[in-house]
Amino acid sequence: MSITDIQYQDSGIDPFQQAILSGRLCHAYILVGPTGIGKSTTAREFTKILLCDSPRQITHKIEEGEQTWRDSCGKCQSCKLVESGNHPDLHLVYKELIATISGKEAHKATELGIDVIRQEVIDKVGRKATVGRNKVFIIQEAELMSRSAQNALLKTLEEPPENTYIFLVSNQLGVLLPTIRSRAQTLVFKILPESFIIDRLSQAGAEEKESRFLAKFVPGKLGTAMELYRLGVYDLNKRLAKDLEVLEPAGTDDFMQWVIEEAKALAEKMAPVEDSEQIKARISEAEMNRTAVKLILALIGGFCRDSLRYKLKFSEQNLLNSDQMSTVKSLAENYDVSQLQKKILDLGEAEKLIDANVNVTLTVTDVITKVVSH
Fold first, then answer.
1. pLDDT (tens digit, 9 = 90+) per residue, 184-201?
2. pLDDT, average across residues 132-137
């Protein structure tokens, strides 16, 4: 992969490019923007450039003409090691590493705590590079750093060792301490065009209807859309449509069981695998199940929103489930506007409760009862 393969993010990439070409690189960058739009991929490509044995100058086309950028060669041993996630001078930092700390093996990775920052950044930042001249630290989900972790990181950001670069990947800039933000340059990443996401999904093998559904379900988020494609969420949504179309209060228990079983199957597909950055995340079974349940509730919410919009005379082609109109119309016939609005609010509240670690089964039971009732 090349830095030029990352499209529609020039506003986030160009400041780094101009800095590296002028020899004025900052020691720390915050890559900020919604989840799934290419921040982590960009951080990896920046890393390849910094660690590459033979970086090259390239011509990058922009609307106003052309710019000179620097890119990795993609062929040297360093580039290959970064791609595999095994470069000794690339340090990937993420909250699940809490399980590697003695005495913390069973600790829930709900935040990026001070123990991980100390072990993975502070204790390693002073070491000499193993292969080349530079060292790179990529801190994933930096918005989850605890206040103590951020304060501990400040010293490193204030007085970084030579040839050390830190990328903080975050979807929320405001939760980072002002002192953190003032010691790093912020690179802003934007949501991606729907047409671009549809095209990339199609290239990956998705059918047209599936591509359009996923692009609308997670608007602007290519990485998330690709993951949902891998998980077969479009087919799950079609199965959901069949159940919702014939759902009656008498079938509430069966539908609740269906949701729980489908969530379990979905969670199994989410089992930790080595991603493009080779991060072996230690995610608990319970956490994956919560994520799967929230996804199914979001799909149900999609049908409720479409039914509400249908009743309000929105164009069918603009609906998320435009290829499942029989289900959309069935819900619209069974519930009035206020009932659909209440169901949407109940589903949203259930997702928040699951995030707050409230019992998943009890939450599903409660919200499905509310969704099915008149």
1. 999 999 999 999 999 999
2. 93
Which CATH superfamily groups domain 3-188?
P-loop containing nucleotide triphosphate hydrolases (3.40.50.300)
Residue with tokens 């699940």: 96
Per-residue HEC secondary structure of 76-90 comes to: CHHHHHHHHCCCCCE
Six-digit token string for 264: 């379990």
Q: Return the sign of the alpha-carbon dihedral for residues 2, 4, 8, 9.
A: positive
Share of the chain above pLDDT 90, in %: 77
- Percent of the chain exceeding pLDDT 70 equals 95
What's the first-to-final CA gap in the chain, in angstroms?
Answer: 52
pTM: 0.85
Contacts within 8 Å (CB) and 24+ apart, 333-336? 334/374, 335/307, 335/374, 336/311
Domain boundary assignment for the chain: 3-188, 232-372
